[in-house]
Amino acid sequence: xxxxxxxxxxxxxxxxxxxxxxxxxxxxxxxxxxxxxxxxxxxxxxxxxxxxxxxxxxxxxxxxxxxxxxxxxxxxxxxxxxxxxxxxxxxxxxxxxxxxxxxxxxxxxxxxxxxxxxxxxxxxxxxxxxxxxxxxxxxxxxxxxxxxxxxxxxxxxxxxxxxxxxxxxxxxxxxxxxxxxxxxxxxxxxxxxxxxxxxxxxxxxxxxxxxxxxxxxxxxxxxxxxxxxxxxxxxxxxxxxxxxxxxxxxxxxxxxxxxxxxxxxxxxxxxxxxxxxxxxxxxxxxxxxxxxxxxxxxxxxxxxxxxxxxxxxxxxxxxxxxxxxxxxxxxxxxxxxxxxxxxxxxxxxxxxxxxxxxxxxxxxxxxxxxxxxxxxxxxxxxxxx
Length: 385
Description:
Blueprint: H1 2-31, E1 45-51, H2 58-66, E2 75-81, H3 88-94, E3 100-104, H4 111-121, E4 126-131, E5 135-136, H5 140-145, E6 153-163, H6 169-191, E7 202-205, H7 218-228, E8 232-244, H8 249-269, H9 276-310, H10 315-339, H11 348-368
Parallel strand pairs: 1-2, 1-4, 2-3, 6-8
Antiparallel strand pairs: 4-7, 5-8, 6-7
Helix pairs in contact: 1-6, 1-9, 6-11, 8-11, 9-10, 9-11, 10-11
């Protein structure tokens, strides 16, 4: 009886997290949608580009930013260099004649502090945060700022489009996962507010910006800060940024562990917003989208072990156990194929699913041990023609 109870609870939680919650959010967002007032406005915008050893991509990023369809006299570009040791600072200085400003930290404190300091030097009414590897569509800024015509909007997130140029296993899995995430973000935005944004393309009212602690991940914490100010973070799919996926599984693994560990730190810092009575929809979204999702690997393990104990009792449980083993085998086969540099095809999705869930486990262990990621080490593959 206990094994059966554990099995069905685990399956129910997994099903709710990955299917039930998204479907419920989509349905409710159609019935209870909160419209956003948009207008063609051109407020003063400061684009802050965080950089650490980005000599490979930075010149192209700056050219891309300077070419945006936005009034030049209403646009300020600042590169926040976190003590870069390559040609990053030199490249920024070469653009000084075109109005690009360099802020270099005297000591390496990480991305969040670099952004905080750069904000103090900026003049824009709207602050846009970006990364050196992200390219914007020409009208991205105009699309991004439209929603600030609504006084209830404090933050706007754009649409990040991942490109998998080399058709890698990690790239395919990432694109599938991100397509799922975008549908969920659209629903959450219509319900009221996003709980997180893409760190390479989001904008904040200057009056709403809060200096975050150095161990906080800005693209997750900012949505909570905006919510606590009584304002909304909304999704603008018309503002498009393009970024390449990681090509190697170990790079994707490192990135996901770092991001999840920092997200857990934010959840701990802002745990008060998980109170359903006080924070309503926002708390429900945080619990369903983040807390339960990071616990999925433990429910998966509980389901497998309890199903194994029940397999001798009936054909139903034996078939269920075989199905779980088959899914694990597909993920393992995907890992082997990736190591051998073979095309994965359909194996890419279960492989990426297991990679993401394993990253959640390691991130949780790091969080419980008090390990904090403050600085970041970008891993860049050489450009190919």
